[in-house]
């Protein structure tokens, strides 16, 4: 017997890989005949699968999955069976645009629809993309890890007599990524109704671009987003978290020939990279299953 | 649903989460593009500094460290405040984890001019605007092992203009009534001016006069903890002995200790350099971690400190502690 849908919401700023993840996830669950590690088996399709099918089509064709726009936000629904326990679970994944979250920080506004979603959330997948992290480096630091060397920044800002010209006034858009994500989680705690602590699967997307030899995802996360890492750690009453390094695309499609190389794989699931202790290297359902296990004790 | 499940009630503050400041009780950060809008139930808190009234939900919900920074214009108040926040952005600091803040945009506004995004050639600091009441920024912290309950800290800086006016006028001084309930009052003395023989006496006179006036008006008393901070310590010259020495420092300590040392619960002196000059070899946030640790280890105002009654320092004992601390610093150079 299945109860109401368990809502696992994807939370993340623009261009952090939420829709790409959903595209790959849908392929793996829906096809589930690839034979590769997938801990969730498809039981029932939703009446309307157009949205997720279109995402997965782009993913299978090794195209960049189109970003979700605020006007095109959709929710994916599916009924699955956990292979390990046999438990049937109805899941729904609201695929919200990154702008929805960015607006909460910048405009200090959220919609009634979002509030209603929060009240049904049983877990969060929090997306961060290694190429989309604004660090907020201080001028006293040696280098600007955002790509521009400090001397270049300084030179561009100087007038011929050495004074600063063209200094930019503060705007919320300049806020470091970690600060924005902390605020989004702080806002979410106002309306979460599910059992506490709320499971948060931190997804470091495009892990193929982020990985450094020997550095596990949780260490990468603590190093690159220390404020957010501290916030999750200091609030165990509110959140329980785990970090997953995931590449849904499998590689950098901008590199010449990579798309063709990936498309040539007989099993598209083999493209997927998942890094987390004790997890199958291709099982993109791992964070979904982890969230389900965190909340399973409350289901009876 | 298991009985042990913990639900978060929509009609009360989030369980163990940040307490929502009272609506309309925040000061919005500078946003030139923002136009006034009517109240909207979908609006989120602006996240700017909190007035003392706006901070009531925080102080009512938990024991809160209230810290007030005072000092001349450009003595480093906002720089210190920004420094503490930036150190938490880097990672755990002073033995604590960052557990949240109701005023993240307020901090961000104050840090921006020292970041790469500001496109400035050199780091600068946001100038705190004068307003009718003190405005606080908020940090929620937790011990590294998450064993103890979370601690709330409210930090405010008195503008340099208000500081000067308070020195001159009892009426203005009385306006800073929050001083009487602050757990810590930090008086910042500009180290750069203290190295200037023509400015240092004015720095000392204003500091001494403010403390005397605050005592006279009942804003500081035997429950007060005063931290005197020699800021910009990186510009203090290194003596022949190889240590940074400010020849006016002992006179400052002696004068202020004699003025109020016996009237307050604690009078302490610190050297800090929140944002040393780029050419300096001194590390960022010099002295700040020790300062924050002391604030967090102290008890709360009018509450007995753990293990006994609140101590009263006389000038002589503080001078001894000061000398011992200087000796420790020298051994670390």
Counting DSSP H or I runs of 4 or more residues, the number of helices of chain B is: 10
Give the overall average pLDDT of chain A.
84
Distance between the termini of chain A: 12 Å
Main sheet summary of chain A: 8 strands, mixed
Low-confidence stretches of chain B: 1-16, 31-37, 302-318
Radius of gyration of chain A: 20 Å
Rg of chain B, Å, rounded: 20 Å
Secondary-structure topology with pairs:
The complex is a heterodimer of chains A (300) and B (333).
Chain A: E1 6-11, H1 18-31, E2 40-45, H2 50-60, E3 74-82, E4 88-95, H3 98-107, H4 112-120, E5 121-128, H5 150-157, H6 177-189, E6 198-204, H7 207-210, H8 217-224, H9 226-234, E7 239-247, H10 258-263, E8 273-275, H11 286-295
Parallel strand pairs in A: 1-4, 1-5, 5-6, 6-7
Antiparallel strand pairs in A: 2-3, 3-4, 7-8
Chain B: E1 50-51, H1 56-61, E2 64-71, H2 77-90, E3 96-100, H3 104-111, E4 135-143, E5 151-157, H4 160-168, H5 170-175, E6 184-190, H6 191-194, H7 200-216, E7 225-231, H8 249-260, E8 266-271, H9 288-297, H10 315-332
Parallel strand pairs in B: 2-5, 2-6, 6-7, 7-8
Antiparallel strand pairs in B: 1-4, 3-4, 4-5
Helix pairs in contact in B: 2-3, 4-7, 7-8, 8-10
How would you explain this protein's 3D organization?
The complex is a heterodimer of chains A (300) and B (333). By secondary structure, chain A is an alpha/beta fold. Chain A contains 11 helices and 8 strands. Chain A has an 8-stranded mixed sheet, with helices on both faces. The longest helix of chain A is centred in the N-terminal third of the chain and has 14 residues, at 18-31. The model of chain A is unreliable at 142-163 (pLDDT under 50). With 333 residues, chain B is an alpha/beta fold. In chain B, strand 4 and strand 5 (151-157) form a beta hairpin. Mean pLDDT of chain B is 82; it is low at 1-16, 31-37 and 302-318. The interface between A and B is large, with 62 and 61 residues.
């Amino acid at each position: 017997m299945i109860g109401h849908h368990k809502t696992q919401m994807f939370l993340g700023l623009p261009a952090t890989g939420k829709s790409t993840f959903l595209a790959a996830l849908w392929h793996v669950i829906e096809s589930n005949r690839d034979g590769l590690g997938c801990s969730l088996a498809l039981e029932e399709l939703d009446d309307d699968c157009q949205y997720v099918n279109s995402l997965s089509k782009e993913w299978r064709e090794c195209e960049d999955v189109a970003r979700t726009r605020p006007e095109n936000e959709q929710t994916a629904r599916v009924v699955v069976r956990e292979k390990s326990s046999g438990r049937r679970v109805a899941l729904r994944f609201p695929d919200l645009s990154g702008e929805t979250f960015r607006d909460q920080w910048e405009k200090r506004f959220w919609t009634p629809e979002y509030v209603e979603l929060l009240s049904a959330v049983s877990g969060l997948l929090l997306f961060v993309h290694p190429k989309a992290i604004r660090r907020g480096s201080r001028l006293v630091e040696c280098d600007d890890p955002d790509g521009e060397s400090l001397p270049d920044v300084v030179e561009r800002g100087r007038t011929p007599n050495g004074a600063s010209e063209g200094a930019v006034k503060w705007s919320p858009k300049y806020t470091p990524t970690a600060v924005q994500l902390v605020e989004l989680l702080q806002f979410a705690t106002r309306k979460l109704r599910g059992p506490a602590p709320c499971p948060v699967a931190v997804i470091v997307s495009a892990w193929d671009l982020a990985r450094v030899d020997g550095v596990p995802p949780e260490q990468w996360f603590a190093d690159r987003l220390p404020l957010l890492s501290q916030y999750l750690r200091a609030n165990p009453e509110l959140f329980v978290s785990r970090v997953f390094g995931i590449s849904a695309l499998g590689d950098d499609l901008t590199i010449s020939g990579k798309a063709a190389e990936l498309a040539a794989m007989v099993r598209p699931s083999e493209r997927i990279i998942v890094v987390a202790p004790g997890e199958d290297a291709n099982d993109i359902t791992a964070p979904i299953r982890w969230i389900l296990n965190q909340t399973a004790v409350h289901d009876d | 649903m298991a009985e042990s499940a913990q639900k978060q009630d929509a009609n009360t503050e989030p369980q163990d989460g940040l307490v929502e400041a009272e609506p309309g009780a925040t000061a919005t950060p500078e946003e030139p593009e923002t136009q006034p809008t009517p109240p909207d139930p979908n609006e989120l808190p602006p996240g700017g500094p909190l007035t003392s009234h706006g901070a009531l939900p925080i102080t009512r919900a938990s024991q809160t460290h209230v810290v007030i920074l005072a000092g001349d214009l450009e003595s480093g108040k906002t720089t210190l405040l920004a420094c503490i926040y930036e150190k938490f952005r880097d990672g755990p600091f002073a033995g604590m984890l960052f557990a949240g803040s109701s005023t993240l945009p307020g901090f961000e506004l104050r840090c921006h001019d020292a970041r790469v995004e500001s496109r400035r050639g050199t780091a600068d600091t946001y100038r705190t605007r004068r307003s009718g009441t003190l405005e606080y920024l908020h940090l929620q912290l937790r011990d590294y092992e998450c064993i103890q309950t979370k601690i709330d800290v409210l930090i405010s800086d008195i503008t340099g203009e208000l500081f000067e006016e308070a020195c001159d006028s009892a009426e203005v001084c009385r306006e800073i009534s929050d001083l009487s309930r602050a757990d810590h009052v930090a008086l910042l003395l500009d180290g750069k001016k203290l190295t200037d023989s023509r400015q240092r006496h004015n720095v000392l006179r204003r500091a001494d006069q403010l403390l005397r006036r605050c005592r006279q008006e009942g804003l500081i008393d035997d429950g007060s903890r005063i931290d005197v901070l020699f800021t910009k310590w990186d510009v203090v010259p290194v003596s022949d002995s190889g240590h940074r020495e400010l020849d006016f420092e002992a006179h400052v300590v002696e004068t202020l200790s004699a003025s109020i040392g016996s009237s307050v619960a604690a009078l302490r002196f610190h050297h800090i350099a929140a944002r040393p000059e780029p050419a300096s070899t001194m590390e960022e946030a010099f002295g700040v971690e020790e300062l924050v640790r002391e604030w967090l280890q102290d008890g709360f105002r009018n509450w007995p400190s753990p293990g006994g009654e609140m101590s009263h320092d006389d000038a002589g004992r503080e001078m001894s502690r000061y000398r011992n601390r200087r000796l420790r610093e020298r051994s670390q150079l």
